[in-house]
């Protein structure tokens, strides 16, 4: 699928997205749907669409065949022998959760224990050619009602950009995401961000670090939010324990599925750490899973789950995800709550394989 406009981050620019989609058909004949959030290149994490195919076909499906599954939660243990590859695991697990909820005749959000009938959403804006272009984009997003603005930063496109945005929009809920573009050597520079009343700074330092983040958090007033560094419940426990962050961005694919996402959510609730749901430029199926997860009570901050039309000319679900007054109405139909747009799915499908379990 081709993005309406390229999305630029500190680590690279996205123009298209290839998707690995899973349809799992239960004995009842009902289908559950999952979408891997992996990208085509290993820039954000080491996984790619192609590594997903290898891991799913050669390792995860054989594990599924070993014994019946009684509840989607069972998959955490079943997949535990396979290290990491969390996006591949989450793609299958998401389809199993959808199937489970549909067979229970329940919306996925309720099956997960969610409570909200509407969720608050923000938007993540990629690096723009100029501050003027960014300010214009932000204005459009605010007109559409988004409740929080996130802008991407990188060295050379940070303090001055934030300053220009703050001049124009002094009170807008604003945050920045560096996607690991800095090191501790930049801490004096990063501390200048404390002047701009930012909600948080997301993942300033290395993707595999938490020690340096803890050092930086002690020097900065702005709360640090971890994204790339949190790949498991254990990671969340350690990061919170050492003070590496005050906020956590939960992405279902990054942590290996909805069950682990829920565990991290519950742990953060106990620790008083606010969480929000991150985005991976999802198509409709992944977006629907994000919406269901965000209904859990500790998701107290608006996430990155914008409307379908922000990314795509045509989405693979029907209806598409729409945002009104910065809110998404959570669907009450069973499972993910959206129908699959079979015409769009057929149009975008380049390769399909059926596997008997
Ligand atoms: O770091 O949250 C991120 C997009 C691609 C890779 C990483 C990230 C992002 C975003 C966009 O910030 C989130 C979205 O709108 O889906
Ligand atoms: Mg991020």
UniProtKB/TrEMBL annotation:
Q: What residues bind Mg(2+), as annotated?
A: 177, 202, 227
Enzyme class, one word?
lyase
Family annotation (Gene3D superfamilies): Enolase-like C-terminal domain (3.20.20.120), Enolase-like, N-terminal domain (3.30.390.10)
E.C. numbers: 4.2.1.113
Coiled-coil-forming residues are none
List residues of the Mandelate racemase/muconate lactonizing enzyme C-terminal domain: 131-223
Q: What molecular functions are annotated in GO for this chain? A: O-succinylbenzoate synthase activity
Q: Needs which cofactor?
A: a divalent metal cation
Q: Which domain of life is it from?
A: Bacteria
* InterPro entries (alphabetical): Enolase-like_C_sf, Enolase-like_N, Enolase_C-like, Mandelate_racemase_C, Mandelate_racemase_N_dom, MenC, OSBS/NAAAR
Function text: Converts 2-succinyl-6-hydroxy-2,4-cyclohexadiene-1-carboxylate (SHCHC) to 2-succinylbenzoate (OSB).
UniProt-recorded name of the protein: o-succinylbenzoate synthase
